Amino acid sequence: MPTPAKHHDHKHRRKGKDRKRKLLAGSPPGTSKKARTITTTTATSSSSKRHNNASSSASAVTDSPAGKTPYHAIGASLYLTLSPKYSYRTTQSPHTTPLSGIQKDHLDPLLMSYFEPVNGVVLAYRNVEFESDCARIVGESPFAHVWVFVEFLVWRPLKGMLLKGWVNMAGASHVGLLVENTWNVAIPRERIPEGWRWVEGAGVEVGVVADIEEGTGADGGYWVDGDGKKIEAFRKFRVEAVKAMGHMVSMEGSLLGVNKPEKMPRRERAK
User: Is 228 left (phi over 0), alpha (psi -120 to 50) or beta?
Assistant: First the structure.
């Protein structure tokens, strides 16, 4: 039977182990670019404010398809690694700082690519802040681990949104649009109005390099509407599907019920 002193020592060690387990359970995970807090606002509203960590979330807020814009300002807390090179500032390299290391190693590579934690394409970022004055070293790794808060400008189209794109490709089975001169949209034949028809081109001789107009196929074919007018310039479409493949985003759309042509911007007409 243990003596009172030994019994007290045993209870003290057990409490110490329990306390250690709680601390480890509350420790940040060791994975890079893991989002802890994400807040979302539309890009036209005031910039998003940082949430309290007690009400953190690991996924972005789901937007309603009724939203008129695919642009969103999103604030996120990310758990990132910091290279030893950027751990301190020297007189020889005054621009080599922890903040510049986070930007160069983690944030700059995200630009114009799909980033899953914010569920969209990162267009820009700002207001980068360290959430603590100290970083964490895990095991024997020379890299420090830090929580960083960042505000992202994100392009996130949703199913049901009405967007517009420039007709830049065409084929008997589809119409291709280019949104914001950046993102491709495929309109399959079943989502093209019934009154439209495909006009076969004269074709191009083998070995001859020809200038192909935008909105036409490789053989010179093109789509015309019910009035016989060529389908070109800007067109409104409805987003039917958005797919993320790696860091790229592809969209499928529909022209049914939204087949009114958009006027070309004045700056485009002047060219």
Answer: left
